[in-house]
Design brief:
The protein contains 10 helices and 5 strands, in the order βαβαβαβαβαααααα. With 208 residues, it is an alpha/beta fold. The chain folds into 2 domains: 130 residues, 3-Layer(aba) Sandwich (Rossmann fold), CATH 3.40.50; 67 residues, Arc Repressor Mutant, subunit A.
């Protein structure tokens, strides 16, 4: 599994890039290095998904600014920031901006490997969630417009009668649409219907 674990190492210090990438490769990771944040941002749109190991103290564009740019572009890869010893304020800012962890320099090998392992576990969880969301959206796309209307009512917690009144149709017609949508969504129960809808973000989009 380690051969899929790619680390994007962003650090302006050539010696650190060399030593850290050497150590990480020997720990079973793949590593791509970047001389600074600008160089990384130039390629991140097409970069292979992995974990970003981001130095905070860099000239031109520091790590926090790079992190802000990544957030603005919707880059979902987990970020671990490398901070100077005792630079707690910077670490806190990075974590508030979405970094999954921080490691103080100089760092012990195991400390960095443990942080990266946790980050990749989070990435794997996010991948599974993405797959579930895509599958859920595919199931909902099978529905007709009226079946989606009924689904919105179910997501809102409405009874068949309330849905019928809102849509100006009979409760029996709602029951038919409900049965049809459950069949199309491969859902044996209402709880399964709701789980699929929420996984697809349907409830949020319906509410908006």
């Amino acid at each position: 599994m380690n051969d899929t674990r790619l680390i994007h190492l962003v650090d302006d210090d050539e010696a650190i890039r060399h030593s850290a990438s050497f150590m990480l490769r020997h720990s079973g990771f793949r590593v791509k290095t970047y001389t600074d944040g600008v160089a990384f941002l130039e390629t991140v749109a097409t970069a292979e998904r992995g974990c970003i190991l981001l130095d905070v103290q860099m000239p031109g564009m520091d790590g926090l600014e790079v992190q802000e740019a990544l957030n603005a572009r919707g880059v979902a890869m987990p970020v671990i920031v490398l901070t100077g010893h005792g630079d707690v304020a910077v670490a806190v800012r990075a974590m508030k901006a979405g970094a999954v962890d921080f490691v103080e320099k100089p760092y012990a090998k195991q400390t960095l490997v443990d942080a990266l392992t946790r980050a990749f576990e989070r990435l794997e969880t996010r991948r599974k969630e993405d797959v579930m969301a895509e599958e859920a959206r595919g199931l909902i796309e099978r529905l007709t417009g009226r079946e989606r209307d009924v689904l919105i009512g179910l997501v809102d917690g409405q009874t068949n009668k309330a849905i019928a009144e809102a849509l100006d149709i009979s409760p029996r017609t709602v029951e038919i649409h409900r049965a049809n949508l459950m069949e199309k969504m491969d859902a044996p129960s209402l709880s399964t219907v709701l789980r699929i809808a929420f996984a697809a973000g349907f409830g949020r989009s319906a509410a908006s």
